[in-house]
Amino acid sequence: MSNPQFITNKKGKRLSVVLSIKEYEQMLADLEELQDIRLYDQAKRSKDSAIPAEDAFKALDTRRKKAK
Predict the structure, then answer these.
(1) Is residue 1 over pLDDT 70?
(2) Model pTM?
(3) In this structure, what are the phi and psi dihedrals at residue 59, rounded to the nearest 5 degrees?
């Protein structure tokens, strides 16, 4: 990260931070990747049986069509 700017109150307590759009978008991308890793780890620890992704997508499509 470069140098973020802080918005402070009269006593100097930091209240907010100002980032460039590039830094903000990178932070969001990093958080999304971290969430994906956590979900993957959770799925690996799960005792649930696994199904192929293609079968899961077909099941979701079927549910969506029935919901309409």
Answers:
(1) no
(2) 0.58
(3) -65, -40
Beta strands in 1-68 (DSSP E): 5-8, 14-18
Structure tokens at 58: 């077909």
At a CB cut-off of 8 Å and minimum separation 6, what does 4 contact?
17, 18, 19, 23
| Strand-pair partners of 18 | 5
SS3 for 54? helix
User: Beta-carbon neighbour count of residue 23 at 10 Å?
Assistant: 14
Contact present, 1 and 23 (Cβ < 8 Å): yes
Tokens encoding 39: 């979900």
> Per the structure block, which two tokens stand in for 37?
């890793």
